Amino acid sequence: MNEIIESNEDKEKSLKTIAQVVYVLYALSYFTGITGIVGIIINYVKRDDAKGTWLESHFTWQIRTFWYGLLWCLIGWFTLVIVIGFVILFAGFCWMVYRIVKGWLNLNDNKPMPV
């Protein structure tokens, strides 16, 4: 029985580390561009391992952050010609920073994310 408990604790610790790495990759994507893609791939590969744990909400949060952030970025780029794109890009940037910071803080406090 202790082995199962230790195994679950090890699994959660490993998943928490992976979630931290993904938050870092998302944050670094503003400087490198490519790390966000690496982060979303990790999310999808490890998502099933997180099912049924409090960390599942973080993986879902991260996946949604990536795709909605990409959507805002694309809308912003396509509307740059009519100037509103600058506002959309800035709002999308602020929203992404908020999601990364909020997720990272909740992860650090061992709290699930609202889904």
Could you please describe the fold and organization of this structure?
The protein starts with a helix and ends in a 7-residue tail after the last helix. The longest helix has 31 residues, at 2-32. The chain has helices spanning 2-32, 35-50, 56-78, 84-108. The protein has one domain. It is built from 4 helices and no strands. The protein has 115 residues and is mainly alpha-helical. The mean pLDDT is 93. 83% of the residues lie in helices and 0% in strands.
Question: How would the blueprint of this fold be written?
Answer:
Blueprint (H helix, E strand, L loop, with lengths): L1 H31 L2 H16 L5 H23 L5 H25 L7
Helix pairs in contact: 1-2, 1-3, 1-4, 2-3, 3-4
Question: SSE order in H/E notation?
Answer: HHHH
The percent range for strand residues is under 5%
CA gyration radius, whole angstroms = 16 Å
Largest sheet: none
What does the average pLDDT come to? Answer: 93
Number of helices: 4
> How many strands appear in the DSSP assignment?
0
Into how many domains do the coordinates divide?
Answer: 1
Unreliable stretches: none
